[in-house]
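Input record, target 12 of the design panel.
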């Protein structure tokens, strides 16, 4: 028996048994939608890790002005990648900004000793916040795109009908109402 861990776009991470030869793979009729708080945590963690990693090449730049040109663009890209874990733009922005700020601050604290070049030493936090905002804007851009996926899921969802006796919403294939337990007419 082989167990695989799969992280798909629409699932948060499900453990499932790998199918044996000849066994049909059971698919859910509707893809699951991730909890927004889980998306926020994943966006923050991804932005933290990516912003730290993409900042490492700055250590090898020969010119300090190149650093100020490189970091906003690459942090925007890191925010775009991190924001794909959520479907709301605001959560992508907030998670990308928080994760980007922590990642860049840790990079500056651990690897890039001293202040940012070409800026007064008192402005370290402001420049770090500006870089984190670039990461957050990337998270907002890709998080906003995720809403289209949610709208597409709801459009393709099976339509509901109502019970004639109590008015509760029931599925198309339901034979009995879940609320009043009365039998429903066939569709």
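The sequence produced for target 12 reads:
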């Amino acid at each position: 028996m082989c167990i695989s861990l799969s992280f798909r776009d629409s699932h948060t991470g499900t453990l499932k048994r790998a199918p044996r030869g000849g066994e049909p793979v059971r698919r859910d009729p509707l893809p699951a939608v991730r909890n927004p708080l889980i998306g926020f945590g994943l966006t923050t963690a991804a932005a933290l890790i990516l912003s730290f990693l993409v900042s490492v090449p700055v250590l090898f730049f020969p010119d300090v002005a190149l650093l100020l040109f490189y970091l906003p663009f690459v942090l925007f890209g890191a925010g775009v990648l991190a924001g794909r874990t959520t479907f709301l733009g605001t959560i992508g922005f907030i998670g990308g900004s928080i994760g980007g700020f922590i990642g860049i601050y840790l990079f500056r604290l651990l690897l890039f000793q001293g202040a940012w070049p070409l800026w007064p030493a008192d402005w370290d936090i402001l420049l770090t916040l500006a870089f984190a905002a670039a990461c957050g804007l990337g998270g907002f851009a890709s998080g906003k795109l995720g809403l289209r996926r949610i709208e597409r899921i709801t459009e393709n969802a099976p339509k509901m009908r109502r019970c004639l006796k109590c008015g509760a919403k029931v599925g198309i294939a339901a034979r009995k109402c879940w609320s009043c337990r009365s039998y429903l007419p066939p569709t």
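The longest strand covers residues 3-6.
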